[in-house]
Design brief:
There is one protein chain. The protein is an alpha/beta fold. It is built from 15 helices and 18 strands. The chain has three domains: 6-137, Rossmann fold; 139-369, 3-Layer(aba) Sandwich (Rossmann fold), CATH 3.40.50.2300; 378-521, Histidine kinase-like ATPase, C-terminal domain (Heat Shock Protein 90). Helix 2 packs parallel to helix 3 and helix 4 (95-104) packs antiparallel against helix 11. It is elongated.
């Protein structure tokens, strides 16, 4: 089957931001794709997938109701759409996200911001493979038995252009076997041969290594299992796919070969059509693996670059902000200002101070991450601070019901930094307010743990943490269901708790909701 013509394919674009949907649509039209359907979130996309078939899906990662990773899982588990290529578009790129997407079967990544050229090249590469590539998920390894015949083989795709110039190394101590395999493969591949394990290792470690190795097991001096161990132990050769090609048919040999890292095990005498099909399959999977690994490295590098830019920006922005604050204070001391002018200057001063405090807070988080933060603990009342944060949260969220249970009149004195605790409590209580369904109340309970010299604070809301977020709830940039979520709130809260010698944990289930438990050292 040939790659589909751009005019003939139907593409589903999923993004909660209308401007991004239009941008992606325009980029697709620029490469001749006209059949484009738009969806505002994952749930809307699922409804469309139930009604239509699509040749390609491009989806944003962070979306309300159902994010891109959840949509990817749905597509891969669908009987109808499981093999549809999925391109994830994201502004994030941390290691866990990339790992989760690869495990779920993502076809390609696009990291925001991207240029029109980058978008069109990546999408066109995926389109060119439609109809000619196997699914991302690796197939179950099977053993070809000697009695297999061509009539039992399912016809397979034969994309010569994709496999052209791939090098196959066949390793066997019997020259006739090498000549037989070379005759089967010579029309499609470059074929190299080795008559010993030592020679095979030299070729694999050379400047022109093979793309796949057909490896016999029974050889003098160094058998195939030993060769496989050596190749998998060497970082320069460990990713070369190895197919054992052997007359040994015992289950122990098959299992032993696969356990060593071989991708397949084919028995002699082999059917030429089956051998060629196995080679094509594993070359495709190897290309996909390398492509995804490269995208993973690009995504991780983007995340690292962003953090470096943020770090530099924090320092660079502080100087002009301090200058603005100094100027507003100077203006405020003038005697000839009208009332409305003084109000404007006061608002400017407050806004500039707020941004400066945010930057200082961000710098403090950076030092905590590096382990260089100098904690200056004092004794203060956590109960009084909590009441202040509750008032601020109610002001921001309007009709918010917070039920505060304090088991005694004790002020709950703790040792820590009041500014850090203020930011910590603001983060977790705001998160609870955002997650509470249908304006349901937030319940906060205090208690003193005299045995461990701690104060414990439990914050409960009836909303359950999304399943896709539960394992990464406290990880940096992990977020789900928030259009403007950064994934830094719970991460920074946990970091601030631990910096002060405390803990922050989360328990959630669909029946009872979510409880965050904060402990801090008692005074």
């Amino acid at each position: 089957m040939n790659a589909l013509n751009n005019k003939s394919i139907r593409v589903l674009v999923v993004d909660d931001m209308s401007v991004m949907r239009l941008l992606v649509r325009n980029h697709l039209r620029a490469i001749g794709i006209d059949k484009i359907v738009l969806a505002a979130n994952g749930r809307e996309a699922v409804d469309l997938l139930k009604k239509w078939t699509f040749d390609l899906v491009l989806t944003d990662w962070n979306m309300p109701l159902m994010d891109g990773l959840e949509l990817l899982h749905y597509i891969r588990q669908s009987e109808t759409h499981s093999s549809v290529p999925v391109i994830l578009i994201t502004a994030e790129g941390n290691r866990s996200q990339v790992r989760n997407a690869i495990a779920a079967g993502v076809t390609e990544f696009l990291v925001k911001p991207f240029t029109a050229g980058t978008f069109q090249r990546r999408v066109q590469l995926v389109i060119n493979r439609i109809g000619a590539e196997t699914p991302i998920a690796a197939p179950i390894m099977t053993v070809t038995q000697p009695e297999a015949t061509p009539s039992k083989v399912t016809p397979s795709v034969h994309p010569v252009a994709l496999d052209a110039m791939a090098t196959i190394l066949t390793v066997d101590d019997i020259p006739d076997n090498i000549q037989l395999i070379a005759g089967i493969l010579k029309d499609e591949y470059r074929v190299k041969s080795a008559r010993s394990g030592e020679q095979a290792l030299r070729i694999a470690r050379s400047d022109d290594p093979p793309h796949l190795i057909l490896l016999d097991i029974v050889m003098p001096d160094m058998d195939g299992f030993a060769v496989c161990r050596e190749l998998k132990a060497d970082e320069h050769t460990r990713d070369i796919p190895i197919i054992f090609l052997s007359a040994k048919i015992n289950a122990e040999d098959v299992i032993g070969g696969l356990d060593l890292g071989a991708v397949d095990y084919v028995t002699k005498p082999t059917d030429p059509a089956i051998l060629r099909a196995r080679i094509r399959t594993h070359l495709r999977l190897s290309r996909q693996h390398h492509a995804l690994r490269e995208q993973s490295l690009v995504a991780l590098e983007n995340a690292h670059l962003r953090e470096e830019i943020e770090r530099m920006s924090r320092h660079d922005i502080k100087n002009p902000l301090n200058a603005i604050l100094a100027l507003t204070h100077t203006l405020a001391d003038s005697d000839n200002l009208r009332t409305e002018q003084r109000e404007c200057i006061a608002a400017m001063t407050e806004s500039a101070q707020y941004v400066l405090n945010m930057i200082n807070h961000s710098l403090a988080l950076q030092r905590m991450e590096m382990g260089s933060y100098q904690l200056t603990p004092v004794t203060f009342s956590l109960a009084e601070l909590l009441e202040k944060v509750i008032v601020e949260t109610r002001s921001a969220f309007g009709e918010l019901e917070v039920i505060f249970h304090q088991l005694s009149l004790d002020p709950m004195l703790v040792r820590g930094e009041e500014l850090l605790c203020h930011a910590l409590l603001s983060n977790v209580i705001r998160n609870a307010a955002e997650a509470s369904p249908n304006h349901s109340p937030i319940r906060i309970r205090f208690k003193a743990d005299t045995k461990n010299a701690q104060v414990e604070l439990r914050i409960h809301n009836l909303g359950a943490v999304p399943l896709s977020l539960r394992d990464t709830f406290f990880e940096k940039y992990a977020t789900a269901g928030k259009a403007q979520g950064t994934g830094l709130g719970t991460y920074s809260a946990k970091l601030m708790a631990e910096t002060q010698g405390g803990t922050l944990t989360m328990h959630t289930n669909d029946a009872t909701g979510t409880v965050l438990t904060l402990t801090l050292p008692a005074a």
